[in-house]
Specification:
Blueprint lengths: L4 H6 L4 H24 L10 H24 L9 H22 L9 H5 L15 H25 L5 H18 L12 E2 L3 E2 L2 E2 L3 H27 L1 H18 L4 H27 L1 E2 L6 H14 L5 H20 L4 H15 L3 H17 L1
Antiparallel strand pairs: 1-4, 2-3
Length: 371
């Protein structure tokens, strides 16, 4: 008898993984808020607003890394343009946040401040409904999904893959960045969106709002990890892995790789859009630089450092790389790119399975020594 879908999803992770997830959620939803709210700033136990925001931002990056691992680690599709889908989610939710500024009446119009500055008289058609949270939440998922579907359909139908596919995705995100830099597009040009005030009526800079966003990001990351684990272990995931390893053989036995690739590509784009929507209110700004090719390449580095094809590895990679980036860009800003390049080279040559692979090797050696 076939198990219900809910049971199959919940059984996607083993006991150790569930324990790790439980500890992670307890830290994010209980420990961090308690330490932040109940201890004074001069206490050693106090978790600062900066730390809450930094970890929340990195959890958004970790969500993008899991999305990247679904297509690269499980599907063998290396995208160097995933920063585009992340930025689209940021911009979609940023539109809602900008409309809240106009509704405050600070600029005497129901328009975002940059439109008032540029002497726009009315909202562009694609801004209609952006003051509705429900509509914007739909756009956060729908816009990346549509862009991914259109691009992916033509690319996969033409059987473009390997380095050629990677270069095309890199060109796509670069073209989008140049488009969003223009003031005429209606997205704030070079400055983008910033100076957010409220979200759902709550002050966006308050400690309580920061903690709620932090908790929502943690929950979304955990749910995404469970969903991804179930998807990989399902029949769909097994066929996708077979396409990654031997696409011609899969076609020979009657499967059409187009729809499998396209499905996981769209799912990955939607996850990036959701990550972007959680990211922008925590960071407080979104501009076209989020679409830069360098950011998309960095996403691939997170996955490679943590361990491609492991799901948990990309999360570890995102935290390791971004915590290192936070320290380097403060202490040695001129050396950060050199360190990142060296890290990627070392991982590629010496740790092809990333940090997770290194950990497994160490555990295997320890087990062998014990025997």
């Amino acid at each position: 008898m076939r198990k219900p879908l809910t049971i199959r999803i919940l059984s996607a992770l083993d006991k150790k993984s569930w324990l790790a997830l439980g500890v992670f959620l307890a830290l994010a939803l209980v420990v961090a808020p308690v330490l932040h709210l109940n201890f004074p700033e001069d206490s050693a136990l106090h978790v600062s607003t900066y730390a809450i925001t930094l970890i929340g931002k990195i959890m958004c990056y970790a969500l993008v890394a899991v999305a990247m691992d679904l297509i690269w680690g499980c599907g063998g599709i290396l995208s160097l343009g995933h920063g585009l889908f992340f930025a689209l989610g940021c911009y979609a939710f940023g539109m809602y946040l900008m409309r809240q500024i106009g509704r405050d009446g600070s600029y005497g119009a129901d328009l975002p401040d940059f439109m008032v500055f540029l002497d726009w008289k009315e909202l562009p058609w694609f801004w209609v409904g952006s003051d509705s949270f429900g509509w914007v939440a739909f756009l956060v998922m729908a816009v990346p999904a549509v862009v991914a579907f259109v691009f992916g359909y033509f690319a996969f139908r033409s059987r473009i893959k390997g380095v050629y596919f990677s270069i095309i995705t890199l060109a796509l995100t670069y073209a989008a960045m140049l488009l969003f830099f223009r003031n005429e597009t209606g997205f704030g040009g070079n400055n983008g969106f910033t100076d957010f005030k409220r979200v759902l009526g709550y002050t966006i800079t308050s400690s309580e709002t920061r903690l709620v966003l932090f908790g929502l990001t943690a929950v979304m990351l955990a749910v995404t990890l469970v969903f991804a684990a179930w998807l990989v272990k399902s029949k769909f995931g097994r066929v996708l892995t077979a396409i990654r390893d031997a696409e011609s053989r899969v076609m020979f036995i009657g499967y059409n790789p187009l729809w499998y690739k396209l499905t996981i590509w769209v799912i990955s784009a939607v996850l990036c859009g959701i990550a972007g929507a959680l990211y922008v209110p925590q960071v407080g700004i979104i501009n076209p630089s989020e679409m830069s090719p360098g950011n998309s390449i960095e996403i691939a580095i997170w996955v490679a450092v943590g361990g491609r094809g492991t799901l948990i590895g990309p999360i570890i990679g995102a935290f390791v790389v971004n915590l290192a980036k936070s320290w380097f860009t403060v202490s040695f800003p001129e050396y950060w790119l050199f360190f990142l390049s060296l890290l990627f080279i070392v991982v590629t040559l010496m740790l092809p399975q990333g940090l997770v692979g290194l950990w497994k090797k160490l555990m295997d050696k320890k087990g062998a020594a014990a025997c």
